[in-house]
Protein backbone atom coordinates (compact mmCIF):
# COMPACT_ATOMS: atom_id res chain seq x y z
CA UNK A 1 0.00 0.00 0.00
CA UNK A 2 1.46 3.39 -0.98
CA UNK A 3 1.38 6.57 1.09
CA UNK A 4 -1.51 8.05 -0.89
CA UNK A 5 -3.71 4.98 -0.33
CA UNK A 6 -2.92 5.02 3.38
CA UNK A 7 -3.70 8.73 3.73
CA UNK A 8 -6.90 8.40 1.71
CA UNK A 9 -8.23 5.52 3.79
CA UNK A 10 -7.26 7.18 7.07
CA UNK A 11 -9.13 10.31 5.99
CA UNK A 12 -12.25 8.33 5.10
CA UNK A 13 -12.20 6.48 8.40
CA UNK A 14 -11.68 9.65 10.41
CA UNK A 15 -14.44 11.40 8.47
CA UNK A 16 -16.88 8.62 9.20
CA UNK A 17 -16.41 9.19 12.94
CA UNK A 18 -17.41 12.86 12.86
CA UNK A 19 -20.71 14.64 12.56
CA UNK A 20 -19.29 16.27 9.45
CA UNK A 21 -19.29 12.85 7.78
CA UNK A 22 -22.96 12.35 8.47
CA UNK A 23 -24.07 15.80 7.37
CA UNK A 24 -21.57 17.34 4.96
CA UNK A 25 -20.07 14.20 3.44
CA UNK A 26 -23.27 12.15 3.26
CA UNK A 27 -24.00 8.79 1.66
CA UNK A 28 -21.50 8.84 -1.24
CA UNK A 29 -18.61 9.10 1.20
CA UNK A 30 -20.00 6.29 3.31
CA UNK A 31 -20.34 4.14 0.20
CA UNK A 32 -16.76 4.92 -0.77
CA UNK A 33 -15.58 3.96 2.71
CA UNK A 34 -17.51 0.69 2.45
CA UNK A 35 -15.83 -0.05 -0.88
CA UNK A 36 -12.43 0.63 0.69
CA UNK A 37 -13.23 -1.74 3.56
CA UNK A 38 -14.33 -4.36 1.00
CA UNK A 39 -10.99 -3.93 -0.76
CA UNK A 40 -9.16 -4.19 2.55
CA UNK A 41 -10.93 -7.43 3.41
CA UNK A 42 -10.35 -8.87 -0.05
CA UNK A 43 -6.69 -7.89 0.10
CA UNK A 44 -6.36 -9.40 3.57
CA UNK A 45 -8.15 -12.61 2.56
CA UNK A 46 -5.47 -13.28 -0.03
CA UNK A 47 -2.90 -13.64 2.75
CA UNK A 48 -4.61 -16.87 3.77
CA UNK A 49 -4.66 -19.52 1.05
CA UNK A 50 -8.19 -20.46 0.08
CA UNK A 51 -8.94 -24.08 1.05
CA UNK A 52 -9.47 -26.46 -1.84
CA UNK A 53 -11.83 -29.34 -1.16
CA UNK A 54 -12.12 -32.79 -2.68
CA UNK A 55 -15.84 -32.95 -3.48
CA UNK A 56 -17.04 -33.43 -7.04
CA UNK A 57 -20.78 -33.21 -6.44
CA UNK A 58 -23.27 -31.53 -4.11
CA UNK A 59 -26.74 -32.55 -2.94
CA UNK A 60 -28.68 -29.77 -1.22
CA UNK A 61 -31.70 -30.94 0.75
CA UNK A 62 -34.08 -28.03 1.11
CA UNK A 63 -36.50 -27.95 4.07
CA UNK A 64 -38.90 -25.34 2.74
CA UNK A 65 -40.96 -23.43 5.27
CA UNK A 66 -38.36 -22.87 7.98
CA UNK A 67 -37.30 -25.89 10.04
CA UNK A 68 -36.88 -25.35 13.76
CA UNK A 69 -33.22 -25.74 14.75
CA UNK A 70 -33.94 -26.38 18.44
CA UNK A 71 -36.33 -29.18 17.47
CA UNK A 72 -33.76 -30.85 15.21
CA UNK A 73 -30.00 -30.16 15.27
CA UNK A 74 -29.56 -27.81 18.26
CA UNK A 75 -31.83 -29.06 21.05
CA UNK A 76 -32.28 -27.06 24.25
CA UNK A 77 -34.21 -27.53 27.49
CA UNK A 78 -37.64 -29.10 27.11
CA UNK A 79 -40.43 -26.60 26.62
CA UNK A 80 -44.21 -26.81 26.90
CA UNK A 81 -46.55 -24.86 24.60
CA UNK A 82 -49.53 -25.32 26.92
CA UNK A 83 -47.62 -23.85 29.86
CA UNK A 84 -46.03 -21.19 27.60
CA UNK A 85 -42.61 -22.50 28.59
CA UNK A 86 -40.02 -21.78 25.91
CA UNK A 87 -37.77 -24.59 24.76
CA UNK A 88 -37.48 -27.63 22.53
CA UNK A 89 -40.60 -29.64 21.77
CA UNK A 90 -38.86 -33.01 21.95
CA UNK A 91 -36.31 -34.83 24.06
CA UNK A 92 -32.70 -35.03 22.87
CA UNK A 93 -30.40 -38.02 22.35
CA UNK A 94 -26.60 -38.47 22.24
CA UNK A 95 -24.78 -38.87 18.94
CA UNK A 96 -21.53 -40.19 17.50
CA UNK A 97 -20.06 -36.71 18.08
CA UNK A 98 -19.06 -36.59 21.72
CA UNK A 99 -20.96 -33.93 23.65
CA UNK A 100 -23.38 -33.23 20.79
CA UNK A 101 -27.05 -34.15 21.03
CA UNK A 102 -29.87 -33.96 18.50
CA UNK A 103 -33.64 -34.39 18.53
CA UNK A 104 -34.92 -37.82 19.55
CA UNK A 105 -36.57 -38.23 16.14
CA UNK A 106 -33.17 -38.11 14.42
CA UNK A 107 -32.36 -41.51 15.89
CA UNK A 108 -30.99 -42.97 12.63
CA UNK A 109 -28.69 -40.02 11.93
CA UNK A 110 -27.43 -39.82 15.53
CA UNK A 111 -25.17 -42.94 15.49
CA UNK A 112 -23.56 -41.91 12.18
CA UNK A 113 -23.22 -38.21 12.96
CA UNK A 114 -19.44 -38.54 12.74
CA UNK A 115 -19.98 -38.31 8.96
CA UNK A 116 -21.71 -34.94 9.50
CA UNK A 117 -20.92 -31.43 10.64
CA UNK A 118 -23.55 -29.30 12.35
CA UNK A 119 -23.15 -25.56 11.85
CA UNK A 120 -25.32 -24.12 14.63
CA UNK A 121 -24.50 -20.45 14.13
CA UNK A 122 -25.80 -19.55 10.67
CA UNK A 123 -27.52 -16.18 10.48
CA UNK A 124 -28.99 -13.50 8.21
CA UNK A 125 -31.33 -10.56 8.74
CA UNK A 126 -34.45 -11.61 6.77
CA UNK A 127 -37.19 -12.62 9.20
CA UNK A 128 -40.80 -12.32 8.11
CA UNK A 129 -40.75 -13.15 4.41
CA UNK A 130 -40.24 -16.74 3.31
CA UNK A 131 -39.48 -15.89 -0.33
CA UNK A 132 -36.87 -13.26 0.54
CA UNK A 133 -35.22 -15.57 3.09
CA UNK A 134 -35.23 -18.44 0.58
CA UNK A 135 -33.62 -16.15 -1.96
CA UNK A 136 -30.98 -15.14 0.60
CA UNK A 137 -30.10 -18.75 1.39
CA UNK A 138 -29.84 -19.63 -2.31
CA UNK A 139 -28.02 -16.58 -3.66
CA UNK A 140 -26.28 -15.25 -0.56
CA UNK A 141 -27.47 -11.73 -1.34
CA UNK A 142 -30.51 -9.51 -0.83
CA UNK A 143 -32.89 -9.05 -3.73
CA UNK A 144 -32.40 -5.91 -5.81
CA UNK A 145 -34.24 -4.20 -8.61
CA UNK A 146 -31.16 -3.99 -10.81
CA UNK A 147 -29.58 -7.43 -10.88
CA UNK A 148 -30.74 -11.03 -10.48
CA UNK A 149 -28.04 -13.00 -8.71
CA UNK A 150 -27.41 -16.69 -9.50
CA UNK A 151 -28.21 -19.44 -7.05
CA UNK A 152 -25.51 -21.56 -5.45
CA UNK A 153 -26.50 -24.43 -7.77
CA UNK A 154 -26.11 -22.27 -10.85
CA UNK A 155 -22.73 -20.96 -9.71
CA UNK A 156 -21.53 -24.55 -9.29
CA UNK A 157 -22.95 -25.47 -12.71
CA UNK A 158 -21.24 -22.45 -14.28
CA UNK A 159 -17.87 -23.03 -12.63
CA UNK A 160 -17.66 -26.83 -12.78
CA UNK A 161 -20.09 -27.91 -15.49
CA UNK A 162 -21.38 -31.45 -15.75
CA UNK A 163 -19.20 -34.39 -14.80
CA UNK A 164 -20.45 -36.27 -17.87
CA UNK A 165 -21.61 -35.36 -21.37
CA UNK A 166 -24.61 -37.61 -20.76
CA UNK A 167 -25.92 -35.59 -17.79
CA UNK A 168 -26.83 -31.98 -17.02
CA UNK A 169 -24.81 -29.98 -14.53
CA UNK A 170 -27.75 -28.99 -12.32
CA UNK A 171 -30.99 -30.79 -11.47
CA UNK A 172 -33.78 -29.42 -9.28
CA UNK A 173 -36.14 -32.00 -7.80
CA UNK A 174 -38.87 -29.52 -7.02
CA UNK A 175 -40.84 -26.72 -8.61
CA UNK A 176 -39.06 -24.17 -10.83
CA UNK A 177 -38.29 -20.82 -9.24
CA UNK A 178 -36.17 -17.76 -10.05
CA UNK A 179 -34.49 -18.12 -6.67
CA UNK A 180 -32.97 -21.44 -7.80
CA UNK A 181 -32.03 -20.09 -11.20
CA UNK A 182 -28.95 -18.76 -13.01
CA UNK A 183 -29.68 -15.04 -12.78
CA UNK A 184 -27.19 -13.03 -14.80
CA UNK A 185 -25.19 -16.17 -15.67
CA UNK A 186 -27.72 -17.13 -18.34
CA UNK A 187 -29.55 -20.30 -19.27
CA UNK A 188 -26.43 -22.45 -19.62
CA UNK A 189 -26.09 -22.31 -15.83
CA UNK A 190 -29.75 -23.14 -15.31
CA UNK A 191 -31.39 -26.30 -14.02
CA UNK A 192 -33.46 -29.15 -15.35
CA UNK A 193 -36.36 -29.77 -13.00
CA UNK A 194 -38.74 -32.59 -12.19
CA UNK A 195 -41.46 -33.20 -9.63
CA UNK A 196 -42.08 -36.90 -10.33
CA UNK A 197 -39.16 -39.20 -9.57
CA UNK A 198 -40.45 -41.98 -11.82
CA UNK A 199 -41.33 -39.87 -14.88
CA UNK A 200 -38.16 -37.81 -15.02
CA UNK A 201 -37.89 -34.21 -16.24
CA UNK A 202 -41.01 -32.71 -17.76
CA UNK A 203 -41.01 -32.84 -21.56
CA UNK A 204 -38.13 -35.30 -21.83
CA UNK A 205 -40.26 -38.38 -22.40
CA UNK A 206 -41.25 -39.02 -25.99
CA UNK A 207 -44.89 -39.77 -26.72
CA UNK A 208 -45.64 -43.44 -27.41
CA UNK A 209 -47.12 -42.31 -30.74
CA UNK A 210 -43.71 -41.07 -31.89
CA UNK A 211 -41.42 -43.92 -32.96
CA UNK A 212 -37.67 -43.57 -33.38
CA UNK A 213 -37.89 -43.05 -37.15
CA UNK A 214 -40.31 -40.18 -36.71
CA UNK A 215 -38.17 -38.71 -33.94
CA UNK A 216 -35.10 -38.84 -36.20
CA UNK A 217 -36.97 -36.97 -38.97
CA UNK A 218 -38.03 -34.31 -36.49
CA UNK A 219 -34.49 -33.84 -35.26
CA UNK A 220 -33.13 -33.52 -38.81
CA UNK A 221 -35.75 -30.86 -39.58
CA UNK A 222 -34.94 -29.02 -36.36
CA UNK A 223 -31.22 -29.12 -37.16
CA UNK A 224 -31.89 -27.62 -40.59
CA UNK A 225 -34.11 -24.87 -39.17
CA UNK A 226 -31.56 -24.02 -36.48
CA UNK A 227 -28.82 -23.71 -39.09
CA UNK A 228 -30.95 -21.40 -41.26
CA UNK A 229 -31.86 -19.31 -38.23
CA UNK A 230 -28.21 -18.87 -37.26
CA UNK A 231 -27.33 -17.74 -40.80
CA UNK A 232 -30.07 -15.09 -40.87
CA UNK A 233 -29.68 -13.84 -37.30
CA UNK A 234 -27.17 -11.49 -35.79
CA UNK A 235 -24.93 -13.42 -33.45
CA UNK A 236 -25.27 -13.09 -29.72
CA UNK A 237 -25.00 -14.97 -26.45
CA UNK A 238 -28.76 -15.46 -26.22
CA UNK A 239 -28.87 -17.32 -29.54
CA UNK A 240 -25.83 -19.39 -28.61
CA UNK A 241 -27.37 -20.29 -25.25
CA UNK A 242 -30.62 -21.31 -26.93
CA UNK A 243 -28.82 -23.41 -29.51
CA UNK A 244 -26.79 -25.18 -26.85
CA UNK A 245 -29.91 -25.75 -24.74
CA UNK A 246 -31.69 -27.43 -27.66
CA UNK A 247 -28.70 -29.67 -28.29
CA UNK A 248 -28.51 -30.60 -24.61
CA UNK A 249 -32.25 -31.33 -24.42
CA UNK A 250 -32.02 -33.69 -27.39
CA UNK A 251 -29.03 -35.43 -25.88
CA UNK A 252 -30.59 -35.81 -22.42
CA UNK A 253 -33.90 -37.13 -23.76
CA UNK A 254 -32.05 -40.18 -25.01
CA UNK A 255 -31.91 -43.53 -23.21
CA UNK A 256 -28.51 -42.95 -21.58
CA UNK A 257 -29.80 -40.28 -19.20
CA UNK A 258 -33.44 -41.34 -18.91
CA UNK A 259 -32.53 -44.75 -17.49
CA UNK A 260 -31.39 -42.93 -14.34
CA UNK A 261 -35.07 -42.53 -13.41
CA UNK A 262 -35.76 -46.26 -13.40
CA UNK A 263 -35.83 -46.59 -9.61
CA UNK A 264 -37.40 -50.03 -9.90
CA UNK A 265 -33.93 -51.31 -10.73
CA UNK A 266 -32.90 -50.67 -7.12
CA UNK A 267 -33.34 -53.36 -4.47
CA UNK A 268 -36.65 -53.13 -2.62
CA UNK A 269 -34.93 -53.19 0.78
CA UNK A 270 -32.92 -50.10 -0.13
CA UNK A 271 -35.96 -48.27 -1.48
CA UNK A 272 -37.87 -49.08 1.68
CA UNK A 273 -34.99 -47.81 3.80
CA UNK A 274 -35.08 -44.47 1.99
CA UNK A 275 -38.79 -44.18 2.75
CA UNK A 276 -41.62 -42.43 0.93
CA UNK A 277 -41.61 -39.90 -1.89
CA UNK A 278 -38.97 -37.67 -0.30
CA UNK A 279 -36.76 -40.69 0.29
CA UNK A 280 -37.17 -41.72 -3.34
CA UNK A 281 -35.99 -38.24 -4.37
CA UNK A 282 -32.88 -38.76 -2.26
CA UNK A 283 -32.33 -42.17 -3.87
CA UNK A 284 -32.72 -40.56 -7.28
CA UNK A 285 -30.16 -37.93 -6.29
CA UNK A 286 -27.60 -40.70 -5.72
CA UNK A 287 -28.34 -42.10 -9.17
CA UNK A 288 -28.06 -38.62 -10.68
CA UNK A 289 -24.66 -38.22 -9.03
CA UNK A 290 -23.56 -41.52 -10.56
CA UNK A 291 -24.71 -40.30 -13.98
CA UNK A 292 -22.54 -37.18 -13.73
CA UNK A 293 -24.85 -34.45 -12.40
CA UNK A 294 -22.79 -31.90 -10.49
CA UNK A 295 -25.41 -30.20 -8.27
CA UNK A 296 -28.82 -31.45 -7.15
CA UNK A 297 -31.39 -29.70 -4.99
CA UNK A 298 -33.94 -32.00 -3.37
CA UNK A 299 -37.06 -30.35 -1.97
CA UNK A 300 -38.57 -31.99 1.10
CA UNK A 301 -42.34 -32.13 1.58
CA UNK A 302 -42.83 -30.84 -1.94
CA UNK A 303 -46.61 -30.79 -1.81
CA UNK A 304 -47.06 -29.88 1.88
CA UNK A 305 -48.76 -33.22 2.49
CA UNK A 306 -49.20 -32.51 6.21
CA UNK A 307 -50.86 -29.16 5.55
CA UNK A 308 -48.09 -26.86 6.79
CA UNK A 309 -44.73 -28.34 5.90
CA UNK A 310 -41.89 -26.95 7.99
CA UNK A 311 -43.81 -23.70 8.48
CA UNK A 312 -44.86 -24.74 11.97
CA UNK A 313 -47.16 -21.97 13.11
CA UNK A 314 -50.11 -22.94 15.31
CA UNK A 315 -50.95 -26.66 15.08
CA UNK A 316 -48.27 -27.26 12.46
CA UNK A 317 -46.08 -28.06 15.46
CA UNK A 318 -48.14 -31.20 16.05
CA UNK A 319 -47.06 -32.71 12.71
CA UNK A 320 -43.41 -31.68 12.80
CA UNK A 321 -42.22 -35.03 14.14
CA UNK A 322 -43.47 -36.73 10.95
CA UNK A 323 -41.25 -34.51 8.83
CA UNK A 324 -38.25 -35.03 11.12
CA UNK A 325 -38.63 -38.81 11.00
CA UNK A 326 -38.99 -38.71 7.22
CA UNK A 327 -35.83 -36.61 6.97
CA UNK A 328 -34.03 -38.93 9.39
CA UNK A 329 -34.74 -42.08 7.36
CA UNK A 330 -33.90 -40.57 3.99
CA UNK A 331 -30.80 -38.63 5.06
CA UNK A 332 -29.23 -41.47 7.06
CA UNK A 333 -29.83 -43.92 4.21
CA UNK A 334 -28.42 -41.48 1.64
CA UNK A 335 -25.22 -41.03 3.66
CA UNK A 336 -24.70 -44.77 4.10
CA UNK A 337 -25.66 -45.51 0.48
CA UNK A 338 -23.16 -42.96 -0.83
CA UNK A 339 -20.54 -44.38 1.52
CA UNK A 340 -21.19 -47.93 0.31
CA UNK A 341 -20.79 -46.76 -3.29
CA UNK A 342 -17.56 -44.90 -2.41
CA UNK A 343 -19.22 -41.57 -3.22
CA UNK A 344 -19.55 -39.93 0.20
CA UNK A 345 -16.13 -38.27 0.17
CA UNK A 346 -16.86 -37.00 -3.33
CA UNK A 347 -20.35 -35.71 -2.51
CA UNK A 348 -21.16 -32.82 -0.19
CA UNK A 349 -24.62 -33.03 1.36
CA UNK A 350 -26.14 -29.76 2.59
CA UNK A 351 -29.33 -29.71 4.68
CA UNK A 352 -30.71 -26.18 4.90
CA UNK A 353 -33.83 -24.09 5.39
CA UNK A 354 -34.64 -20.40 4.97
CA UNK A 355 -34.42 -19.71 8.72
CA UNK A 356 -34.97 -21.28 12.12
CA UNK A 357 -37.61 -20.70 14.79
CA UNK A 358 -37.63 -19.11 18.25
CA UNK A 359 -37.89 -21.05 21.49
CA UNK A 360 -41.07 -19.26 22.54
CA UNK A 361 -44.35 -20.78 21.41
CA UNK A 362 -46.96 -18.55 19.81
CA UNK A 363 -50.58 -18.29 20.92
CA UNK A 364 -51.55 -21.24 18.74
CA UNK A 365 -48.84 -23.51 20.12
CA UNK A 366 -46.51 -23.17 17.15
CA UNK A 367 -43.47 -20.98 16.55
CA UNK A 368 -42.62 -17.81 14.64
CA UNK A 369 -39.56 -17.11 12.47
CA UNK A 370 -35.94 -16.59 13.52
CA UNK A 371 -32.98 -15.81 11.28
CA UNK A 372 -30.45 -14.48 13.79
CA UNK A 373 -29.39 -18.02 14.78
CA UNK A 374 -30.19 -21.36 13.14
CA UNK A 375 -28.54 -24.57 11.93
CA UNK A 376 -27.29 -25.98 8.63
CA UNK A 377 -25.89 -29.50 8.29
CA UNK A 378 -22.99 -30.52 6.05
CA UNK A 379 -22.11 -34.17 5.49
CA UNK A 380 -19.50 -36.04 3.47
CA UNK A 381 -17.72 -34.03 0.81
CA UNK A 382 -14.23 -34.90 2.00
CA UNK A 383 -14.55 -32.41 4.87
CA UNK A 384 -13.14 -32.83 8.35
CA UNK A 385 -16.39 -34.29 9.63
CA UNK A 386 -17.66 -34.95 13.14
CA UNK A 387 -17.59 -31.30 14.20
CA UNK A 388 -20.12 -28.96 15.76
CA UNK A 389 -19.46 -25.41 14.62
CA UNK A 390 -20.83 -22.47 16.60
CA UNK A 391 -22.72 -22.18 19.86
CA UNK A 392 -26.10 -20.60 20.57
CA UNK A 393 -27.42 -19.47 23.94
CA UNK A 394 -29.54 -21.52 26.32
CA UNK A 395 -32.67 -21.18 24.17
CA UNK A 396 -31.01 -21.02 20.74
CA UNK A 397 -32.12 -17.42 20.28
CA UNK A 398 -28.69 -15.82 19.82
CA UNK A 399 -25.21 -16.82 18.68
CA UNK A 400 -22.66 -17.05 21.47
CA UNK A 401 -19.60 -17.98 19.41
CA UNK A 402 -18.38 -18.58 15.84
CA UNK A 403 -21.07 -16.88 13.74
CA UNK A 404 -21.32 -18.13 10.15
CA UNK A 405 -22.95 -15.83 7.60
CA UNK A 406 -24.76 -17.10 4.52
CA UNK A 407 -21.85 -15.90 2.31
CA UNK A 408 -19.51 -17.87 4.61
CA UNK A 409 -21.71 -20.93 4.16
CA UNK A 410 -21.67 -20.51 0.38
CA UNK A 411 -17.91 -20.00 0.40
CA UNK A 412 -17.61 -23.30 2.29
CA UNK A 413 -19.74 -25.11 -0.30
CA UNK A 414 -17.76 -23.64 -3.18
CA UNK A 415 -14.37 -24.33 -1.60
CA UNK A 416 -15.37 -27.94 -0.89
CA UNK A 417 -16.07 -28.32 -4.63
CA UNK A 418 -12.74 -26.83 -5.66
CA UNK A 419 -14.23 -23.44 -6.58
CA UNK A 420 -12.37 -20.36 -5.37
CA UNK A 421 -15.05 -18.26 -3.61
CA UNK A 422 -12.92 -15.13 -3.97
CA UNK A 423 -13.15 -15.20 -7.77
CA UNK A 424 -15.42 -12.90 -9.75
CA UNK A 425 -18.26 -13.59 -12.16
CA UNK A 426 -19.50 -11.09 -14.72
CA UNK A 427 -22.96 -9.60 -15.13
CA UNK A 428 -22.32 -8.27 -18.60
CA UNK A 429 -19.16 -6.21 -18.15
CA UNK A 430 -19.72 -5.76 -14.43
CA UNK A 431 -17.56 -7.90 -12.12
CA UNK A 432 -19.49 -9.56 -9.30
CA UNK A 433 -17.71 -11.55 -6.56
CA UNK A 434 -18.91 -15.15 -6.31
CA UNK A 435 -19.76 -14.51 -2.66
CA UNK A 436 -20.54 -11.33 -0.77
CA UNK A 437 -17.21 -11.31 1.14
CA UNK A 438 -17.76 -14.89 2.32
CA UNK A 439 -14.95 -16.84 3.96
CA UNK A 440 -15.07 -20.66 4.21
CA UNK A 441 -15.45 -22.35 7.57
CA UNK A 442 -11.80 -23.27 7.61
CA UNK A 443 -12.09 -25.71 10.53
CA UNK A 444 -13.79 -28.11 8.11
CA UNK A 445 -10.82 -28.36 5.77
CA UNK A 446 -7.63 -30.32 6.36
TrEMBL record:
PROSITE patterns (alphabetical): TAT
Pfam family, one: DUF1501
InterPro entries the UniProt entry points to: Alkaline_phosphatase_core_sf, DUF1501, TAT_signal, TAT_signal_bac_arc
SUPFAM superfamilies, per database record: Alkaline phosphatase-like
The protein's name: DUF1501 domain-containing protein
Organism field: Gimesia maris
Amino acid sequence: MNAFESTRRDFLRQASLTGLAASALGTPWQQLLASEQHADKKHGAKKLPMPVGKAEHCIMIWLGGGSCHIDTWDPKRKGDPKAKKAGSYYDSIPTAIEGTEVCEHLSKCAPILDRFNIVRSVHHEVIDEHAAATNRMHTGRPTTGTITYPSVGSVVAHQRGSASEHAPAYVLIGYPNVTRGPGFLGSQAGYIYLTDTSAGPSGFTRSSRVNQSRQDRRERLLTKMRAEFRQKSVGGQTIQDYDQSVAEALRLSGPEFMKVFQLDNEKSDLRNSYGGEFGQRCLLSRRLIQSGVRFIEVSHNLNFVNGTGWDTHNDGQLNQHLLIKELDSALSTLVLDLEKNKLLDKTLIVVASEFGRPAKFDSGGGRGHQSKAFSVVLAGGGLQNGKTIGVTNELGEAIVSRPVSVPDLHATIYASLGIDPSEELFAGDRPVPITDMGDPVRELFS
